[in-house]
Amino acid sequence: RILLLLSVISVFSIYGGSFFKIPTFSGDDRVIYGGSPVEEKEHILEVTKKHLEGLVKAEAQAGPELQKKVDSLNTDIVELKKQLPKVSEDDKKFLNDKLGLLNEWYQTLVDTQLAHNQILTSVKKIVELLESYIKQPDFNEVRIKEHAGYQFGDLLEWNQQAVSLEEGIKQLKTEKNSAEETLANLRKKSADLGVQYKAKEKEQEEFVAKAQKETLDKTAIQQQGQLLDLEKELLQSRMNLLELKIPEANYNIQLVDTRIFLEEIKLGLFKKDIEKISYKLIIDDSILREKEEAVQKKKQEEQAAQIGFTKKKATLTKQRDAIKKEIE
Hints:
By secondary structure, the chain is mostly helical. It is built from 6 helices and 2 strands, in the order αααβααβα. It has helices spanning 3-12, 37-83, 89-135, 152-213, 218-277, 285-327, and strands at residues 150-151, 281-282. A two-stranded parallel ribbon has the order 1-2.
């Protein structure tokens, strides 16, 4: 079996679950609830950094060995492909079946590497967002600057920015719903694979018992035994992969949650700024006159276009009547 993968999963499995909501610590670590949003996020940041340290350490320890296994499988696949043209027709089916299983196993290991990298990416991004928020919880860089007065056009522009923020939050909530569905599907798939693995163990045991009692072709027994072993290893590898995919989905949900939290705070502050500056609007008479003149000019152009159309229509009608008269 892939003992390496089992060791990787044993390290990673402690990071599964919604640790932001129900973190578990040892020693003097305590969860702080009821404090200010900044205090709670400071504590979450501390927890997240500990998780990140563990993930980085696990990568340093197990990553190179996992890569060796990936390279080894790739070499086996290449060698097996070279053998295929040289074997008898009877052996080709066995080698093709074996090749198919090795290819699936190889892809599962590659997906395991990708899942781990994605977990690291998500956790690093969460740390980055939290650090940025704690450093500047009032979002001063994107807030509306204080002035003695504001133009009406500024208010329209800021209202549009608020609408954009609201649309962005809606999109993030849709993304979260999709991520939660993915998580639920992964958990169901994990349970299904567990059932399949037990069934494969039973099948393997029955095969061994049958091979011991009956007189069968040794080559056929060896080939069938190899395929059963590979099928079992492949199932184990898929189960191990899901043990990473599930926390990957969890971390993705926590990342989206963090983004929603930040965007909602930003939107709330932005709306307060808009409400405050609405009392300081400067209505510039010259701007109002320009707007009114532009409206009047547009009306005149539309009237001129209508008159032109009416004249052209009358001309065409006269031409038509003249032609009709000539024909008659």
